[in-house]
Amino acid sequence: MRGNSLDTTRVKGLKPLGKHPEKRLNAMRVRNVLAPGRYADGNGLYLIVDDSGAKRWLLRTVIAGKRCDIGLGSVQLVPLVEAREEAARMRRIARSDGDPLAERRRERVVVPIFKDAAEKVHAAHAASFRNPKHKADWISSLQMYAYPYF
Asked: Which of 36, 47, 112, 120 is the most buried (most CB within 10 A)?
């Protein structure tokens, strides 16, 4: 050490000087790490190893001014390369003032097909039909004329 300056690369317990780590993990290290803890890959992507040995990906980012942890899935299902790609995609959404969690929820919404939607509407309005024949005619006309085309 020179003078009063502190060389942090030699002092135990302090972070090294320089850029944040980027792509610190590799596939071999992900596969072989067994000790429970949090292992940084860089840019907010972490490998979390639980006490049980389960491994999962976690992205720590800022969304609308608040820190948010987003799970990206298990290591068994999501390899390192895909975790990095998904983390980069979610960081881009957050950086452009979007909400990656809301985006993920929108992607998971299942839009029903016409037949399912028509049958749900028919069941919901079944009490509004005065005549049982009209109730049966309504759904049978859809089955005959609309279902084959939609």
From this structure: 47
